[in-house]
Design goal:
Substrate Binding Domain Of Dnak, Chain:A, Domain 2; Umud Fragment, subunit A; extended
Length: 432
């Protein structure tokens, strides 16, 4: 340890002697069945002599002689236990700890981070907190606390010139979206990561911001430039076309053919164009044990792997996605499902088993209700086949789920969420 640098010679020698005695005990107990009677006696005598010297608080020179005598015996009798450095013992300790952790993770409890907002507002993926002005931003101490408590990472854009803030848009109707460029970056400054770079304009000058690939930047744009919008707060389904039709902004076409949304916000050079924190997604422990003994129940939070889901939606560049997903279990083998917006029906009646079902059915709070599409398009029913499950997102308007890619094979079920252990907010606690 660091403080050992300031220890006296006697103290260091006593510590060394204690370490050699510990090694002698290991050699004796691990190899006693292979040692001769003479070898066992030699170890006991050398160790006993050094132990008496420690008890009598002999000086450093006598302890050194005792250590050397014990070392000579252990060289002859120690086998693979001699010499055993502290470094090797530390390596063994961490290897054993890693094996135990992997065993617990594989068979009992696994940590899991919510990647997207398909289960929002039951479980949060990465979400933004937008600051109206520079004065509203947390100070340095506040940023440190927010990073520790919520994983908050700040993003800011300052105006290079005076002018109106304009946002590029693409598409039409309900498919209007914000264009971005894929860029490479680092996660935790080490691991390669795929990022999205968005460009905004102040007058005619471009400014950029980079965010994680799974982060919903359109949510930021809505909260920053369309405050007080009365339409449902549904991340990932921001209908910019509807906002424009409500005269909350207008489009202009650039000479290069780009559509720019005129937000109506004017800034001066050096002022904040945009300021927000990216808050980490919910991190939770998943129970991997229960489903070995009991069947999953409708309404459970439902974690599964995508390895054997046979659908083009589960392929990327021709390769099967092999990821962990979390949805809510909506159908077990034999169940008949139907969506009559906004209600999900199971076996002819509104589905029960979770508060999220009731809240979606009544459009309570931020729950957007279930949308009929894909496998559960308007007027269609679906019967869940044997050894399969239907998994739907609570945020139906922004969830790639069984409606699009079909059923989850029973063999790919992992478990159910137990406890949200991070971030340290009011969401901390038992998983809903």
């Amino acid at each position: 340890m660091f403080f050992g640098l300031f220890s006296s010679v006697e103290t260091k020698m006593r510590t060394t002697a204690a370490n050699w005695l510990e090694l002698a005990d290991k050699v004796y107990h691990y190899r006693r069945d292979r040692l001769t009677e003479a070898e066992r006696t030699a170890i006991q005598q050398a160790a006993g002599s050094l132990r008496r010297q420690l008890k009598e608080k002999s000086d450093a020179s006598k302890l050194k002689l005792g250590i050397e005598a014990l070392e000579n015996v252990l060289r002859r009798t120690g086998g693979t236990h001699y010499p055993k450095s502290a470094w090797m013992e530390n390596v063994e300790f961490f290897l054993v700890a890693a094996i135990v952790i992997l065993g617990v993770r594989m068979y009992f409890v696994q940590p899991f981070k919510i990647p997207t907002n398909s289960m929002w507002p039951s479980y949060n993926g990465m979400t933004p907190e937008v600051f109206a002005s520079k004065a509203d931003e947390p100070n340095a101490a506040g940023r440190v606390l927010r990073l520790a408590a919520m994983g908050a990472r700040p993003r800011t854009i300052d105006a290079p010139v005076d002018g109106e803030v304009r946002v590029p848009v693409m598409g039409n109707g309900a498919q209007v979206r914000l264009p971005f460029r894929e860029v490479k970056g680092r996660s935790w400054f080490i691991f390669p990561a795929k990022l999205k770079e968005y460009t905004l304009f102040v007058d005619q000058r471009p400014v950029t911001v980079t965010v994680p690939w799974d982060f919903d930047f359109e949510w930021v744009v809505r909260d920053a430039f369309l405050p007080g919008i009365t339409t449902r707060r549904n991340p990932g389904s921001v209908d910019l076309a509807a906002f424009i039709k409500e005269n909350r902004g207008t489009l202009m076409r650039t000479p290069g053919g780009m559509d720019l949304w005129k937000t109506g916000k004017h800034v001066r050079a050096g002022e904040r164009v945009l300021s927000f924190d990216i808050l980490t997604g919910d991190q939770l422990f998943v129970d991997r044990m229960s489903y070995h003994f009991v069947r999953p129940e409708v309404g459970d939070g439902f974690v599964f792997r995508t390895d054997h889901i046979d659908s083009p939606s589960m392929q990327l560049n021709g390769r099967q996605l092999e990821q962990y997903y979390i949805k809510r279990l909506a159908g077990t083998p034999g169940d008949v499902l139907e969506i009559r917006e906004p209600v999900l029906y199971r076996n002819g009646a509104p589905i029960t088993g979770s508060k999220a079902y009731e809240r979606n059915a009544t459009l309570e709070g931020n729950y957007p209700g279930y949308q009929a599409t894909g496998l559960l398009a308007p007027g269609q029913t679906y019967t869940v086949p044997a050894d399969s499950y239907i998994a739907l997102g609570d945020n139906s308007a922004n969830s790639q789920d069984s409606r699009y890619w079909g059923t989850v094979p029973a063999k790919d079920v992992v478990g159910r969420p137990l406890f949200i252990y991070y971030p340290f907010t009011k969401r901390w606690g038992p998983a809903p």
